[in-house]
Structure formats: C-alpha cells, structure tokens
Amino acid sequence: MYLKKSVTSVLAVLLSSSVAYAMPDATKGNPLDSLGIPTPAGVGDITVDHENPKTLHVGPASSKVIVGDYAELGSSGPQCSDYSKIKADAYRQKSTPAQQEQAYRNREFVSNWYQFTYALPRSSVETIRKISDSRAEMDELAFQNAGTIERFKAVDAKWKGIAIELGALEDEFDTLDKAQATETNTCIVSYSKDPTMLSQCIVGVITKYQAPKAAVTAEIDRVKQDRAAIRDEYYEAKGLYDAYEDKITRLDSSLDFQTRLLAAQSAIVKSAWEVQTDVVETSGAKITGLASAGYNLWENERDLLASTLYQAGHGDYSVKQLDVFNVRLNSGVTQANPTVEANNSPLFYKNVWTFPANTLVNKDVLSDWAMPFERELEGDTIHFDTMDAHSFASGGINFFVTRDARCGEYSEQIEEEYTGNENGVSASWSVKRKLYEPQPNRSVFVANLGLAYNYYAFPGEIKGECSIDVDRMHSYWRNAGKSKGWSWFRSKTRSWDHIREEAREELGMECSLDLKPQSNDPALAAEIAANLEAEMYNDMWTMFLSVYAESYDVVSNEPVVDDAGKSQVGAQLGDGITKFCKSAVCGFANVVLRTLDTIGGSKAQGTTSHVSTNYGKIWKRFNKRTWTVKEGSALVTAKVCVDKASCS
Questions:
Q1: How far is CA 166 from the centre of its chain?
Q2: H/E element holding 617?
Q3: pTM for this one?
Q4: Model confidence over 487-500: pLDDT tens digits?
C-alpha cells in the first residue's frame, strides 16, 4: 500500500514538472536490432534515450551467478567420515536381491532401515496369508450358512414375540390376583366380628375376579400352545446358528491376533528406525561452517555494451546505466535480526518517513494550499516504510552451514521390487536403497535472490483539448441565480464520470485526450491519462474564471468522498484554483460573466457600432511530455562451495 502511494505521488510530481530528464524511451525496442549488432551476454534490457538517439540505457543482467566463500567453524572440522558412517549404518542395505534374501534367512541384522523395508514385509508373508485366509473363511462360512442364518432369524423373531406376549399375559394375571387378595383382606378387616357378612364379602370378591382370571388363563394356555408348536424348530435352528457363531468367533479371534501381531512388529521396527534417524538428524544439524556471499544488482553491464558498440564501429554512441530506484529483495533465504536491546530500547528500528499530506500531492511542494479539485480526504501526514534509493541493490548474506549440508546428501536412490515365497504363498513389495557418497567439493549453499526495481521511462507524448461553450455557460449562471452553485467534488450520488457529463451538458465544458499515453501496464497508462485529464479541467476552469468572470462567490463545503487511495483522478496536480479558493474544500456560486465589450472592447462593423451578445466557444490545447514508472527484475544466484575453485 505504501509503495503504491509513493510511486503514484512521484508520478504526480513528474507529470506536472516541466524539468526534462534523460530517460529510456518505453515506446521503442532494442536499438541494437536496427544497428545489426547482437545483444551481448551479461547485459539487461537496452533502450534508446527519449531525447538523444545516440544515448543508450542498459539495465541489469536478468540473471547472474556470484560465487561466495566458505569457512569452517571450530577446530574439529565437520568430521564427515564419522557422519558418513552414521548415515551409512542407518540406511545400509544388501547390494543384490539375492543377498537381501540370504540375510533374511540367516536372521542377519543389516540395519533398522533394512528391517523396516525388507525383513518385516518378508517375515509378514505368512501372517498376512493367515489374515487373508481368516477373512476368506469367514466370508465362505457366511455364504454357506446363509439359509441357517435366515431360518434362525425368522424363528427367533417368532419365539421372542411369543415370549413377549406370554410375559404380558402373566403380568395381567398377577395384577388380577393381587387385586383379589387386597379386596379379600379388606373383607377380613371389615367383618372380622360378623361371620355371616365376612362369608358374603369373600364370596363376592371371588365371584368378581373369577371370570377375568379365567379369560386371562385361557389366553396364557393358548400362547403356551403356540410356543410348544415351534419349540423343536426353534432349538434346532438355534443349535445350527450357535455352531456357526462359534466358528466365526474363533476366526475373528485369530484374525485379531494376527493383525495385532503384525502391528506390534511394525511398531517395534518403526520405533527403532525413528530412534536411529533422530541420531542422524541431530548429528546432521550441527553447525560446522559459515557461507558468505556478496551480491550486486550491477556488474559490468555498461562496459560490456560500450565495448560491443565500439568494436562494431559505433563509438559515437554513449551508454548510461539505467537509473534504478526502490530496489527490493525477494529471497527464499532470510536471516532474522536478533532481539538485542540497550538501555531497555531496541537497537533495530524500521525506517519510517513521515510527510505532510499535501507535500507529495501538489505540483509545487512548497505550496501552502491544496487544490480543491477532486481532493481526497486524508490525514495530516503520510507514513510509509522506506529505505535509501538503492536499498537492496547490493548486500551480503551470511548463512550457517550444517554438517549435513557440508558433508553431502545421498548421491543416488534406487527403488527395487522384491518377491517372497513361504509355504507356497507368494508376496511382492518395493524397497528403496539409498547409496551414500560424500562429495567434498559440493555446493553447501545456493540462494536465488530475486531483485525487483523501478525506473522512469518515457511513454510518449499526450495530446488533448478542452473547450467551453461560453454561451451555454452564461445561460447556466444566468438561470441559476443564487439558488444554485457548482462543485467539482464527488459525493455519494455524483461520481467523477457524472460530474464530467454534467459539465458538458450544463456548462458546455468538455476535455478529451486525442493521443493517450502508452505503457506496458494498461492500468498505469489509464492513471496517467486520468490525472492529465483532471489537470486539463482544472486549468480550463481557472482560465475561464480569470477571463470571463465579473464576480463569483466561493462557498465552503465538506464533500463526501471515497476513502483516500481508492481514486487517483484529480490527484492535486495543480494549484491554480487556490488563487480563487483558499479553503481546502469549496464550490462556486453566483458566477456573473463579463460582457463582451468588457472583455475585448466594441467591435465596429462598417460605419455602425455594434455590441456583440454572442460569446462563442473557446479552446485550449495541451501537449504533455510525460513520465511513467516501470518495473524490472534480476535474478542473482549466490553460490558457495567448499572448494571455491571447483564451484561452477
């Protein structure tokens, strides 16, 4: 965000500046092509100067390699032989498939990697077969006993249904029996001294419950008969199903045991392998050296191009190194600044520049007044992180080198297919064999430093024209009176396009570009065009008020605009209107035009004096030589080897 604002601001200043700078012409290609000269290796883009065709600008080479230095740290050195042995022990394999198999049959320990990739899969052939056989047998049993399973489930459903019904009837009979006993006890308590009434009461209770209990008893007998009818069928089906279930349970237990056994073997071997690799990683992570590499965006590009031109008989050409700025570094290698403090204050700071808000957006940086035309509302100051003009154009990298990087990686990795046979059962698997060979002169550090930079270029001329139909303008203000004014500010309901359309329809004022700027970046070209168009409207409006206005009122207002940064149209490229409007935001009202006699005097025709009441149309033409900001990039490969002479 900050970069865009600063570049846009510089662009705005350059657009309004009348100072001419020597810079490359972005509208033309490589001039060496027209001279019939091959572009020499080791140089970047070549462009002709926008003013002097005998001056060429050369950019940084797009790709270059810089070889750095390596220094051992510590007196013991990297001890690559010891580290090589640790690695070799960890990844040791037999050389041939026959030797791999023989080591397995001899129960020879080769390495944990061998155990993990060969011995364990090989020894698991029988276990895997048992697991597979158990699963297949379970599937076969289920298929063979499909009828038994289906028959048992059907009769079991009937059996359980009868049991549920019988249980409900027995509960109902028990409820009636308990109720009868309760009422009988009541009779005894109530008529214990009256034998006649006691006898009548008990007989009445027996009579009351006799019929309901008899009905429930009959239902119980019926259900028991239904159960007896399927008893033999049920127990026969259940016996067959229980036998099937017993087989399945035993097979499932065997399957679970074999699976757990295989998992336990794998876990043991894997744990041993991980312990050994931890030893390798810990040993390999030890810092043993320091790689140092300096880099520079530029090398000898200017001399190479000048020499090429001279040898081709074009010594009259001069060569300039492209004037770059804002060089950025994009690299996969970073080195964090340590957290160091002195007197409770950090030693490292971001370089932040602060500018008054209007400084970067006025044509004249000394101007005290901001142009009200299409003004963006923003704070009093602008802050952005920055560095010096060339920042990362050159620098150095210090990178600690580990023992693993110093001593080298595996030079080759081979994947081989193996098969095994155990009791007539075959299996196959893959084994990766890592061959380790230390390389003393290998590169210990390689970093690709992507450098991006900006430079100014000439995109060509911009031509435009503004016109005002003064009669229409006069009509607008005559009819407006004091109830209507004019503002160049955007609002929630008035966009810049809307304002331009209103200016054309209401004021008879219109500006357009006949020759628009060209750029490799369409968005940048459109921004340059929009900024110049805004400046044209500003200049035309200023000229109109200066020449034609007899009087006018300046009305202060506070326009509603978008957040700063969302639009660059009218980005304060001139301060002409500030001579009329000393307020940062203002509009115009009650504009009274001078008469033509006041502007240009009476106009005689023949022998009779005549006062013209027709203002006509006025024009103003613009021809700008503009600047644009372009971006380039270069890849610098920083490489460090143990033996610098062998580093290629």
A1: 71
A2: strand 617-625
A3: 0.45
A4: 666 666 777 778 78
